[in-house]
Amino acid sequence: MPLPQHLTIGLLSHNPGWEILLEQIGAIWEVIPATAELTAARYSVIIANGSASNATISQRLVAYVEEGGSLLEEGSTLSNTIFRAGQPNRGQQWQGGMPTPFPFRNGNILTLGMKVGKQAADTRAKRRLFAAPSAILPSEIVARGNKGEQRMLIHFLLSRLHSLRGLPFVTRWRFPNNAPTIFCYRIDSDHGTQLQIEQLHHLSLAYQLPITWFLHTEAHQGWLGRFAEFEGDELGVHCHRHRTFKGYRENVENIRRAMELLRQHGITPRGFAAPNGFWNPAVADAVADCGFLYSSEFSLGYDDLPFFPWLRWRGRFGTLQVPIHPVSPGNFRRVGAATAQMIEHYQTTLQSKVMAAEPVIFYHHPTHQQWGVTEAIFADVRRHNIPAITMGQYAEWWARRSKASVRANLQNGLLTVATQPADGGDAPSDLWISVEHHCEKGALMPANATVRLEDIRWEREVQPPAKRQRVPSFNFKMLFHSVEDSLTRLRQ
Ligand SMILES: [Zn+2]
Known about the structure:
This protein has helices at residues 16-25, 55-66, 77-84, 116-120, 147-163, 194-207, 248-264, 281-289, 329-334, 339-355, 371-383, 391-403, 476-491; strands at 5-6, 9-11, 29-31, 45-48, 70-73, 94-95, 98-99, 102-104, 107-111, 125-129, 139-143, 169-172, 183-188, 212-215, 234-237, 271-272, 294-295, 310-311, 316-317, 320-321, 360-364, 405-411, 414-420, 432-437, 441-446, 449-452, 460-461. The termini are far apart. It has a domain at 183-396 and 472-491: Glycoside hydrolase/deacetylase (TIM Barrel, Alpha-Beta Barrel), CATH 3.20.20. Helix content is 32%, strand content 21%. The structure holds zinc ion.
């Protein structure tokens, strides 16, 4: 009987960015122990991250590929060495905007030639334009690199490197149970009046879709208790004063004040969303120390799966970050977009997220009203039958997914998956396993099961990452908005 083929990805050395990516993808992975044998049976794919590989490691990696392994190299040192040593046909390295693997002996090597790990752990932000149907494109200050796009690329490449070996790509699914996606609606309450809040609440009741509120407590003093009556909704913190600070102590005080007021009304918040979507080290420290389950700041991440950000100055990962789609009707109002254009934008975005099996998390402010847009989004979610949950429910589930330890192997055509939560109890019953085959088709299976690979009923098409939509990097409104925002913040 042949040895079992483990479906484990080996990461050559610890790296926060790569660990963020692999966890988002839900990969079965480990940092390769110093004593481990680098055999093709032990590792379905090896990621050679960093550039510090010495000659001994290079030799072992070459042997791994010779034996039939799939190697993803972050830099290009190893590939260049092999190439110079007489590899006859390296072929085209990038095709259609995507790196392509080149065969070597019985295996394959894919050279990324870019510092993926570094980008995934990047915390810088900048103002950028978003594709939209309006004449002037809306802008927002968001994470500098598009981390979600990069993650989708890496996911696809890992799937491809498995398929080149005839192996399935097995990951932890990104939604509870076998849901194809989820929908969350986030409201940053800002200076919303009680009437505006009631109008939103009314829509939420009419469509039976929960709202995740982030409350600006200073603005709702006197009637904060009303929020506690919104059954099924989630109530989080958007600070007491609507602002963030560079200093740790000011942030903690601003957050604790809001938490204290909420507690007086029997509300125990689990989520935090910083005013203006701003994230900085002092905010991250304050959020971690105030004990939140998760936070959501688009200047750190947007249009992406949840992740635990790397807090370099603390040398550890921080509070779970739940990214959203960062364009709100407010961004559209500023560029004079029509209601119909906003609706079209959300319908197109929802459609593409459903296709790519990405979460649909939109946000809005009561002060910007545009109830027709909210109503159209809600109707669309109902039409697509998308399970609607709160961001806290998604975060709680995601945290459990992160802790589940999954092993998978293939032997004589039988795929076996075994899952255990980190605390040794029963495997979480709402965690499903995604199996991708030949980068084309996918299916979901329970977290503990054995199935014959050829008996799997493939249920969904696996989409390669969508072609990047070309968006200009600048328009005159951006400059105007940057100045206007700075002035607004001075007043907050
Ligand atoms: Zn706000």
